[in-house]
């Protein structure tokens, strides 16, 4: 049974976004809270859920590693079934975004939105996670920090990504999209830039 944390859209909802968390932080982390609040304020209904291992951690207080991909995908698919609605996008932070792209291979949705896509494990650039991307049944937007250790701008420039995948780069951003102070850009500015890109992407996918 999927329990949602829902941020209702301000005004008439333009679309719904089913959003999954990353490997180490829950659905109500500061990053996820910020995304949900800001998107809801712009007319997007945001539904968040937790994968089984994270829900178990919430119940017991004991940390567990992420479930294997088939378990994660099953939970995501169940959440999508429960979300309902005509204009549903799926996405997530890091691992959650990766699972959304994998689910989009099997299931229909309006589009996929990823924040900090894990193109490869940190320090292992040869172990890419790209093979399934051309098989997605929906377009995708990836909002990525320029110095993300899971795939920085220089590395990703060398990938042959399908045309259905759009990249939106955040200046000097890390895996949480946050820049260094010396960059002259603030974390808030990067988040705002990412959200603007998401709203444009959602608006184009009729």
SSE topology:
Elements lengths: L4 E3 L7 E6 L9 H12 L2 E6 L2 H9 L8 H15 L4 E6 L1 H12 L5 E4 L24 E6 L7 H4 L8 E6 L16 H18 L2
Helix pairs in contact: 3-4
Describe this structure in words.
The chain has one domain (5-204): Alpha/Beta hydrolase fold, catalytic domain (Rossmann fold), CATH 3.40.50. It has a seven-stranded mixed beta sheet, sandwiched between helices. It is of the alpha/beta class. The model has no long low-confidence stretch (mean pLDDT 95). The protein starts with a strand and ends with a helix. It has helices at 30-41, 52-60, 69-83, 95-106, 153-156, 187-204, and strands at residues 5-7, 15-20, 44-49, 88-93, 112-115, 140-145, 165-170. Helix 3 (69-83) crosses helix 4 (95-106).
Written as H for each helix and E for each strand, in order along the chain, the element string is EEHEHHEHEEHEH
In percent terms, what proportion of residues is strand?
A: 15-25%
Assign the CATH topology.
Answer: Rossmann fold
Q: Give the count of structural domains.
A: 1
Overall shape: globular
Task: Give a brief outline of the structure.
The protein has 6 helices and 7 strands, in the order E-E-H-E-H-H-E-H-E-E-H-E-H.
């Amino acid at each position: 049974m999927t329990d949602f944390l829902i941020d209702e859209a301000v005004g008439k909802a333009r679309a719904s976004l089913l959003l999954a968390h990353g490997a180490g932080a829950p659905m109500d982390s500061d990053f996820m809270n910020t995304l949900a609040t800001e998107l809801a304020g712009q007319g997007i209904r945001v539904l968040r859920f937790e994968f089984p291992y994270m829900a178990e951690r919430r119940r017991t207080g004991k940390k567990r590693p992420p479930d294997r991909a088939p378990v994660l995908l099953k939970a995501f698919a169940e959440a999508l079934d429960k979300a309902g609605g005509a204009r549903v996008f799926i996405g997530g932070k890091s691992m959650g975004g990766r699972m959304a792209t994998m689910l989009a291979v099997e299931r229909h949705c309006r589009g996929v939105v990823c924040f900090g896509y894990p193109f490869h494990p940190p320090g292992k650039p040869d172990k890419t996670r790209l093979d399934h991307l051309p098989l997605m049944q929906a377009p995708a937007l990836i909002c990525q920090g320029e110095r993300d250790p899971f795939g920085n701008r220089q590395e990703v420039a060398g990938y042959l990504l399908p045309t259905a995948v759009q990249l939106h780069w955040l200046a000097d951003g890390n895996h949480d999209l946050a820049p260094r102070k010396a960059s002259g850009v603030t974390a808030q500015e990067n988040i705002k830039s990412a959200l603007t890109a998401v709203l444009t992407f959602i608006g184009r996918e009729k």
